[in-house]
Model the fold of this input.
Amino acid sequence: MINVLFFAQVRELLGEGSLQIEATDATTTAEGLRAQLAAKDEKWGKVLASDKLLVAVNQTISNWDTQVQDGDEVAFFPPVTGG
Done:
């Protein structure tokens, strides 16, 4: 299983803080996992648009092509800005 975490506005908009998803051929990268979750419905698709998110795999900021495997933790969160 892949442990998926959602933070900040992503968490608020989805109404989910975490979930576990079975590792499959479609979830071998962070992008594959994001795409699979975004396909759940229109709301998930909008919230999980890759141009609005950052991803961390096992608590390390990662690229969308980062490999993901069974037992990994993947976190999705919005870019942080300051001012």
In short: Strands lie at 2-6, 18-21, 54-57, 60-62, 73-77.
